[in-house]
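SAMPLE LOG
Freezer: B-3
Tube label: C17
Construct: single chain, 872 aa
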Amino acid sequence: MGEVYRARDTRLDRTVAIKVLPSEVAGDSDLRARFEREARAVAALDHPHICGIYDVGSVDGTHYLVMPHLEGQTLAARLEKRPLPFDEALRIAAEIADALDKAHRQGIVHRDLKPANIMLTKAGSKLLDFGLAKLRPTAGPISMSGMSQLATRAPETAHGMILGTVQYMAPEQVEGKDVDARTDIWALGAVIYEMVTGTKPFHGDTPASVIGSILKDEPKAIGAVQPLTPPLMEHIVRRCLAKNPDERWQTAADLMRDLKWIGEGSATPAAAPARTRERMAWSLAGLAVLAAAVLMVPSALYLRRTAPELLLTRFEIPTPPTGDPASFALSPDGRQLAFVATAEGESRLWVRPLEDLTAHLLTGTEGASFPFWKPDGKAIGFFAGGKLKRIDLGGGTPRVLTDAPVPRGGTWSRDGFIVFAPSAFGPLMRVVENGGIAVATTQFAAGDGSHRWPQMLPDGRHFLFFMSFGRSDARGVYVGTLDGGKSTRVLSAETAAVFAPPGTLLVVQQGVLVALRFDPERGIVSGQPIPVAQGVGTDPGVGRGAFSVSASGVLAHRASGAQRRQLVWVDRAGSELGAETSPDENALGNPELTLDGKRVAVQRAVQGNVDVWLIDVGRGVPNRYTFDSGADGDPVWSPDGSRVVFRSSRKLVHDLFEMPSNIVGAERSLLETAEPKVPLHWSHDGSVLIYASQNPKTGSDLWALSLHSDPRTSTIAGKTDPVVQTVYDEWDGQFSPDGRWVAYESNESGPFEVYVRKFPDPVLQRRVSIAGGTQPRWRPDGKELFYVAPDTRLMAVPIKMGRDKPTLEAGTPVPLFATRLASGSGISTVIGMRPQYAVAADGRFLMNVTLDAGAAAPITVVLNWDANLLNR
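STRUCTURE (predicted):
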């Protein structure tokens, strides 16, 4: 809309373009309003691939705006000659997708994307003409209240009229429905199709026939027009041009990333597939095999119902790096795979339809873990930030349902209930699918360890779950009920089992996934285990196997992938000063320095056995300290470094033990109770040990164990007193150097934050972190308190304590540097996660960092996995 003139800006001595409202419509107030909206839309955007705006105004009734003068030609003019070379089309598409992403983030939908509105310059492509864009508040939905005529020069929209250029309009646009960012993605798909093939995707002799083609036809395959085009480009364009907006790319950013991935791996069209597979293995590896398998998905599922012989088919799905290789789940119909992987340095949730070649990232799922599907496949439950959340695949942001500070899995019933494990200790809880107050749905008895990893059974009333820790004669797989009735053990096992209809239990035994006959109505397991897959990974720290199964005969499993970790010294600026240990694949975790900085205690899991190991600083060689077959970990030094307290499961419940650090002398029990416990910190005067204990009613609490030092008989334990015991979860208690304050983290305000509380007087308390914080540590002189922010940065809080009075002043947190602290398997305790760094007296930090992002093993998908079981 409007006429454009080349002009000279005499004040700034530059050539500009002036766009004016035509005189024949200048008197129309609606058109003038649209003209001004265009100016505001463009002025709000600052992007290298969007044509900017210098000025807007009116002189003698002529309304105008001033824009940069661009040297070049429109994409429409370029396409009049011939299609673009593949590399050039790919570059332009990525640039325009980037520009759209910027506009969409500002709440602006272009609504008239076409080759005539793309200028090709020496500096790259430029998106023009936001005359059809309609501003909206960024927090609300974008809607189009009406449509105008087929031409882009049209009056203000009225209901039932078409707005846009017909050949590039999405189905919802031509039908007069609401439009959003996905409407622009459709138009960009049409532009990409035209750039690559030289023809428009939808044809017709009249506007009406073009609209009919848009609504009912599929464009001719790109490969049939341009045979050298990589197959992935066909997939990208097809997804852009999906009739249903929910089936398109949901954001321009997702589309841009895949376009760039192709571009980074292609020098010529013919070379693009091979190089892209090589460089972006997680999305393109095994393209030929995967394409064949994808074609077989619907037919294989159909044959499962009708054919006498079932074809067992395997293929692999590489994923981005992940520190949690067992966090994935097949949809109930077996056609989609949800998994957790790292993006922008943080675990997030991805979904991969098996018929697609790539996965797409679900926005707003930062910190995601343990996904599970709604029975109809339209939503996914997951855990993040100490909460149970759900995200609907039709669009929208994740919703918080209830608290889950240390989650251990969930399942969704067809009646709208979610059963989940909110904590690493305690019963399973039940909450309605839209959120609310959670209630217990399993009975937690004395000696029980942890109820976790629930899975609904076909009747919708019963579910499987796994009990870990606790008494050895009570561990295993149970059947529970939604009404909270008594649970029944059906199988002794070391990891959770998964039900596969119509009558099979799958469980990992010593790295082998095996199948057992199971009657879900009577809760009876029978027969001998039948091997299904070799080398299936497990996470022994949480008691689950790396596999998932659907009701349609699709199985997914993954091999173990060790995350390499290393202790490194880092200065205050984040610069590495040297490594203390060699790269370690034995789940290195929970480093603790002695006060003199000469020794380090760590937790390591060697061949599945968790123990405490000691390291002399400077030598970097771990020496095993505990040798019991139980899980021993979370070491804490005595102030003089002569003793170490640790937790151990050797007596079924995690109790506190201690032993001389020189291993000369017997270890002995320090504290035994019915609740799991984890030692956290020893006061500098040696009189008190602070520890965390898990209670079924109050969650994780902080307790103080008084100690009396006797050089002849070693440390003697005294009475216990609560330090912080509330309905919220408290964790990571750390004494200040003078012993008068305890720093800890709590979720009483929602996300975990760092607090400081007077000890032993609980009255004086204050929060010191801002926008989330975990893993607090004091500077040895007490003048700073460090913690880790949700974005992984190490924060420093200036602290000023009163000498004579119990006062504490905390300054504003200051970010120091982004960390690469380890997380995940091997360092998660029965309650929470200990700090993965220590602070030395000289100001250095000893940090347990990850050397790689995690497991590189792909996920193996098996169609008709049980074909060989039918005759057994």
